[in-house]
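Q: I'm teaching a short session on how sequence maps to structure, and I want students to see two examples side by side rather than one. Could you give me a first protein with its sequence written out and its structure tokens following it? Keep the formatting plain so it prints cleanly on a handout.
A: Of course. Example one:
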Amino acid sequence: MSPPAPAGPPAPAPSRPQPKGPPKGQPKGQHTRAVILDAALALASQMGLEGLSIGALAEVTKMSKSGVFAHFGSREELQIAVIREYHARFEDEVFFPAIREPRGLPRLRALFERWVRRVSVELEAGCIYISGAVEFDDRPGPVRDALADMVRAWHGALERAILGAVEAGHLREGTDAAQMLFELHGLVLALHHDWRFLRNAGVLDRARTGFERVVAFHAPPAKAKARDASGAPFGPTTADAPTAPMSTVTASAPTATSASARPATTPRKPTRTARAAAGARR
């Protein structure tokens, strides 16, 4: 008898609601572009970035191909716009809520937990950061550059959170932030792989257990001894007062190849993660 199928992940989060007409004060062109991007994100999550095409979007949105083309100019520009929109939503759901937590381990834990939750609702469709890396890992060009810049921006935020936890005394002095980031990223990749490919049950709990083990390994000596004595994982510290968010992330969006069909977002402009962090430091 074959083993029972694992329980499915939580239902995917709904996409941004799109009213039938443009909101008051919003130009019709911007509203139409937003509707197209929303449909493009849904297609990319199911078919990958390579599955996007002007024709497929025209069919889904009930628009003409020329109407879709007018907003993006090329398939490549459309793919880059989708990556930027995905990153903006990722920031809204993961980064910005997490940096409201006290600086140090509470913030790092919030970043990881929200990351895991985000991936968990994408397990059926697939995470564009992960699936896009598989599609474009050996294909140089503006689309790969855009995707890599967004991932580097997120990794930069995580690494700075790790360094903040070291400075707060929640992780031991001399912790290799890049190594710890590598381990946390590995947990999320394993979560994605073991659910989508192997259909293993309990993957979310395993990812969270893995996080606690990584934190315990990097805990200061006194707290590591306390954990060994109690047998309980090293939990969040609640006595920390909130401080400024992590340092500025310097990753930038790539320059699109078609000057006549650039997306609304200006290339080489810092991500919202970077702007929010820089503003908080001032």
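Q: Perfect. Now a second example for contrast.
A: Example two:
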Amino acid sequence: MSETAQISMQEASTELDQGIFQRIATDGEDYQPPSTSRYLQLRLSDIETENVSHSISLKTIKSGVEHFRIHGRDFVLTPDTVLLVGIDTPFRLSVREGDTVEGVCLQFAPQTLMEQFKIERHALPRDVVFRMPRAAILGGLPDALLDGTVTMTDELFLKLQARTYRTLRRLSMCAKRLSVAGQAKREDIISRLEAARYFLSSKASEAVSVDEAARHCGLSSAQFARYFRDAYQCTPAVYHRAIRLGWLRSVLTVTELTPREAAERGGFTDYPTFSKAFKRAFGCSPSDVVKQRS
């Protein structure tokens, strides 16, 4: 079976009014770099191909496993992850024999990004790749997008385009802050840190140690603490405390809990410490937030 015959690219499931990206239905045709942004529903099986990403793209899958080789590093794309790829990025994609992958690729053409963000082409993230938790960038949308049960409107596509571009730009800047030799190594570290950062964000109601977060992303505690501080310019503890305090502010706003009860629910065993940190973060005390309920 030829390479192209094993790729099925189906058109987006809904009509788009403004025509900001090209609807296609390709099966067995030669692939052409996009001149406009596109939303592709893909079905791949028993394939190995090399190409260059001519657009910023977000790749995610519903089922199966995709294997990528980029910058001399192997990436395994599973249903709970996404790949963010910059323009002009060479890659090798393979789906192993006997496996079938169903997924989505959002391709954001340079011209549409340049027009939306009023930037020049050289400002676009180039020749970079990061792997991150799917929910961290797509939120509640993944299943709906992959199943075709959500309408892919121009408005939604533009929102995803902006989110993808800004995330890729942020990750590229974080990678440049690392004092580590080799682009592939820096991208790997940032991908691991993003997994840990999402893990910390999901633990807003409890205390999490640096050791636990480090284990989650496969780094030693010392490496994790150093890389996190360099990349995000704050310590893991400071970041997680900000997440917890923000969550507790919401709890105090929408529930009938007292400040002390909220502090206990958020894993703060010492109320004065919680109250002081809360006031430093928001400029008001927990009691002030409670008073504003009525």
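Q: What should students look for in example two?
A: Point them to this: The chain has two domains: 4-176, 182-294. Also worth mentioning: Residues 1-34 have pLDDT under 50 and may be disordered.
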